[in-house]
Design brief:
175 residues; alpha/beta; Leucine Aminopeptidase, subunit E, domain 1; 6-stranded mixed sheet; 5 helices; globular; binds ligand AR6
């Protein structure tokens, strides 16, 4: 089961051989900094247009929710734009909202019959979620989901920095 999850260090926009790339977006879905900016740059203008169309139809994307678009210039098949919670000290259901964010991404990937999905460390940058706690939630949520469902078959946690990679690697090693 543990081979269903891979931990790598790097830039998520450079991944090849993955069906779905998850973006840490904001409720506007109009792009931003961090991994959101990098993904929109790599994917191109058509993805912003796709996000605008979703906005027109469905409005803002609440924390915990996610939407799917094609992947434009990226080699993946699709991008899931997920809105994690902003850390507000821990008493505003941030943990449950973060778990929900991961679950909604997995549901969308499964519904579209994708087999592999790559996640950044959602909410741990600009949104300020403590890295250790966020990694534990991400790991437990994804691990449980993959163990219970046929799809997706594999998840990759893409860590942008050394500290995040070490946190995820420790979780992987304790399995
Ligand atoms: N590949 C993988 N991970 C990355 C990359 C990359 N290219 N770039 C950054 N990270 P953040 P959030 C890591 O701030 O906290 C945006 O402006 C980064 O080191 O991108 O969910 C949105 O529009 C960190 O570990 O996302 C929202 O307004 C993780 O990705 C807001 O930021 C998440 O950091 C969302 O904040």
């Amino acid at each position: 089961m543990s081979d269903c999850i891979e931990v790598i260090k790097g830039d998520i926009t450079q991944l090849i051989d993955v069906d779905v790339i998850v973006n840490a977006a904001n409720p506007s879905l109009m792009g931003g900094g961090g991994v959101d900016g990098a993904i929109h740059r790599a994917a191109g203008e058509t993805i912003l247009e796709a996000c605008k169309a979703i906005r027109r139809q469905e409005g803002m994307c609440d924390p915990g929710q996610a939407v799917i678009t094609e992947a434009g210039n990226m080699t993946a098949q699709a991008i899931i734009h997920a809105v994690g919670p902003v850390w507000q000290g821990g008493n505003q259901q941030e943990a449950e909202l973060l778990a929900q964010t991961y679950r909604n991404c997995l549901d969308l990937a499964a519904a579209n019959r994708y087999r592999t999905i790559a996640f950044p460390a959602i909410s741990t940058g600009v949104y300020g979620f403590p890295r250790q706690q966020a990694a534990r939630i991400a790991w437990d949520t994804v691990y449980r989901y993959l163990g219970q469902r046929p799809l997706p078959e594999k998840a990759i946690f893409v860590c942008f920095d050394e500290e995040t990679q070490q946190i995820y690697q420790t979780l992987a090693d304790t399995l």
